[in-house]
Automatic annotation (TrEMBL):
Location of this chain's protein in the cell: Cell membrane; Membrane
Keyword presence, Protein transport: yes
Example of a GO biological process term: protein transport by the Tat complex
Signal peptide bounds: none
This protein's name: Sec-independent protein translocase protein TatB
Taxonomic path: Bacteria, Bacillati, Actinomycetota, Actinomycetes, Kitasatosporales
NCBIfam families membership: PRK01371.1-1, PRK01371.1-4
Keywords carried by this UniProt record: Cell membrane, Membrane, Protein transport, Translocation, Transmembrane, Transmembrane helix, Transport
A cellular-component GO term for this protein: TAT protein transport complex
Region span, Disordered: 99-147
Source species of the chain: Streptomyces sporangiiformans
Family: Belongs to the TatB family.
GO molecular function terms listed in the Swiss-Prot or TrEMBL record: protein transmembrane transporter activity
Biological role stated in the UniProt entry: Part of the twin-arginine translocation (Tat) system that transports large folded proteins containing a characteristic twin-arginine motif in their signal peptide across membranes. Together with TatC, TatB is part of a receptor directly interacting with Tat signal peptides. TatB may form an oligomeric binding site that transiently accommodates folded Tat precursor proteins before their translocation.
Principal localisation: membrane
Length: 147
């Protein structure tokens, strides 16, 4: 519950409690707070048991911690039946990125070598024809009724 509180913060809280409540009332306040926390825990445990009984035997393995999304996902990723570990281990992001990078660099080097070798006027005409051919092939049909 108080996992984040360090020793200095704990000492500060104790000193503050002594100043606010006084040394005479402090033991009574600690007893009241601990009794209230105990009652809240008992109430929550009984509510959990009531919910488990109402859900029936098919949910006997149900844990309320599974309602936390992080816990649920961690539990499902550890489940061997789904085969998610094989998928996760089979996907190598570095390898995929290296292949994409190589493909892009080879395409750039092909484009730069063809443009450097086509310093004559006929090379640019060929590239213009290729570009027009690609653009006309990629254009969707025009529907006058749709506009």
């Amino acid at each position: 519950m108080f996992n984040d509180i360090g020793p200095l913060e704990l000492v500060t809280l104790v000193v503050l409690a002594v100043l606010v409540f006084g040394p005479e009332k402090l033991p009574k306040m600690i007893q009241d707070v601990s009794r209230t926390i105990r009652k809240i825990r008992d109430f929550s445990e009984s509510a959990k048991e009531d919910i488990r009984q109402e859900l029936g035997p098919e949910f006997k393995d149900f844990e309320f911690e599974d309602l936390n999304p992080k816990t649920f996902i961690r539990k499902q990723l550890d489940n061997e039946d789904l085969g998610l570990k094989e998928i996760r281990n089979g996907f190598d992001l570095k390898k995929e990125m290296a292949e994409v990078t190589d493909a892009v660099h080879s395409r750039e080097s092909d484009g730069s070598s063809s443009s450097s070798s086509s310093s004559s006027g006929s090379g640019t005409v060929d590239m213009t024809k290729k570009r027009e051919k690609l653009e006309s092939a990629e254009r969707p049909p025009f529907d006058a009724d749709a506009t």
